Amino acid sequence: MRKTAFITGATSGIGREIAREFAKHNIRLILCGRRQERLDELQQELSTHTEVHTLNFDVRDKEKVAAAVNSLPENFQTIDILINNAGNAHGLDPIQTGSLDDWDAMLDINVKGLLYVSKAIIPQMVARNSGHILNIGSTAGKEVYPNGNVYCASKHAVDALNQGMRIDLNTHGIRVGAINPGLVATEFSDVRFKGDEDRAEKVYQGYQPLTPQDVAETAYFIISRPPHVNIADLTMMCTAQASSTIVKKS
Ligand code: NDP
Ligand code: 8X3
């Protein structure tokens, strides 16, 4: 039977490529983000492969999150796969000079936003005793790097929530797992450095980073395993990367 996936952060980077990869496999899509024009473009692009519905909301707004999920038309109401992907880093500063606004953004989006979306969708999975949740964590959720402090804390929280969800939803037959990517060339660094394109580009120069497609193919592999197989926690890095701070540059 055709499955339906709910993907947050589908307007860019990893989320957008997961949408494209899932569309190839005829998975019905609920695409979420704040940039409506990008949602519209992607809907148009993917509608030749599959059915697509878009939802525009900020994951920080718990009422809007719930209202968006409740607004789904009947044929999109049963969600089989939740991809908790929306998130970003804001700033890269030592703890003593970090910005409170940046800290709020990262904790509100990466942690609380992921919880609000999960809270709106998990009850239907529990009621059906089935579902698959894939959390997009990070190598930053496994190790802390200089000036990464609060972003790393937010991704360590995702790692803990991934484990916690898996434990609590185990008796309901719901699969929960995470992909923890290293450096992936997306708009991530544009956001982190607040539009400083030169600084953002330098992050991915001198080596071949992961592409969002690499992560998307891995996401499809995970969600297409047979029902008795759950990939609980998968860390992936480009070959040039050995840890958050060790990257072999040419
Ligand atoms: P992008 O900046 O390319 O995409 C981020 C996505 O998140 C966008 O679709 C954006 O949509 C959405 N988003 C951000 N803030 C909000 C918000 N407040 N409400 C709703 N949606 C929001 O980055 P990536 O694709 O790289 O990042 C995706 C995930 O992957 C993040 O969780 C990130 O932490 C993680 N990750 C990224 C890595 C990398 O190196 N790039 C490595 C490891 C993990 P919109 O702005 O339209 O709302
Ligand atoms: C994104 C990867 O190393 O920039 O989570 O934190 S990193």
Automatic annotation (TrEMBL):
Source organism, top-level taxon: Bacteria
PROSITE patterns xref list: ADH_SHORT (PS00061)
Entries under SUPFAM superfamilies matching the protein: NAD(P)-binding Rossmann-fold domains
Pfam families: adh_short
Presence of the UniProt keyword Cell inner membrane in the record: no
A GO molecular-function descriptor: oxidoreductase activity, acting on the CH-OH group of donors, NAD or NADP as acceptor
Matching InterPro entries: NAD(P)-bd_dom_sf, Sc_DH/Rdtase_CS, SDR_fam
Alphabetized UniProt keyword annotations: Oxidoreductase
Family indicated by similarity: Belongs to the short-chain dehydrogenases/reductases (SDR) family.
Record's protein name: Oxidoreductase, short chain dehydrogenase/reductase family protein
Biological source species: Kordia algicida OT-1
